[in-house]
Design goal:
Layout lengths: L2 H12 L3 H90 L3 H19 L4 H4 L1
Helix pairs in contact: 2-3
């Protein structure tokens, strides 16, 4: 303990002033308790500030991850749309081929006699679809 406080305490005890000493001791205890409470409050405040910083850091990290996920999702979606467009083109070719074959069969002609017309129609269909975006084909 600090020397002046020790001297005060010893003087009070030696002079037989026990009541004054007890008051002094209680006052000292109260001061220590108040000091501990202030230290705890400062510590709690520091912890709360650190938690806020951590929370902000985590939120920023999550925001960055979500942005990356959205970009990846957009890329995947665009790729899927392009694939679907290509599949739609193939389907259209098969439908055209099926219709032409149905016409050949209905007319009772041979495929050999209609082959040139069939190939020409397929080539025209391919030329018409070049440069078409997949969403237009759907």
């Amino acid at each position: 303990m600090i020397k002046p406080f020790r001297n005060i305490r010893q003087n009070l005890l030696s002079e037989g002033k026990t009541i004054k000493y007890l008051k002094y001791a209680v006052g000292e205890i109260i001061l220590v308790v108040i000091g501990i409470l202030i230290a705890l409050q400062v510590n709690n405040w520091n912890q709360n500030e650190q938690l806020k910083k951590d929370e902000l850091r985590i939120l920023k990290s999550m925001q960055k991850s979500i942005k990356i996920n959205i970009d990846e999702f957009d890329q995947t979606l665009n790729n899927q749309i392009q694939r679907n467009g290509s599949l739609q083109e193939v389907k259209n070719m098969y439908i055209l081929l099926l219709n032409k074959m149905g016409n050949v069969i209905a007319k009772g002609k041979s495929l050999k006699s209609e082959y040139h017309s069939l190939v020409t129609d397929l080539e025209n269909e391919i030329e018409n679809n070049e440069g078409t975006t997949p969403s237009k084909l759907l």
